[in-house]
Amino acid sequence: MTILEVRDITSGYGEVQILWGSSMKLEEGKLTCLVGGNGAGKTTTLRTVMGLLKPWSGSVWFQGQDVSRMPAYTKADLGLVLVPEGRQLFTDMSVYENLEMGASNKRARGNLKQNLDKAYQMFPRLLERKTQKAGTLSGGEQQMLAVARGIMADPIVLMIDELSLGLAPVLVIQLFESLRALRDMGLTILLVEQNVQMALAISDYGYVLAEGKSGIEGPARQLIKDKQVREAYLGL
Ligand code: ATP
Question: pTM here?
Answer without folding.
Answer: 0.94
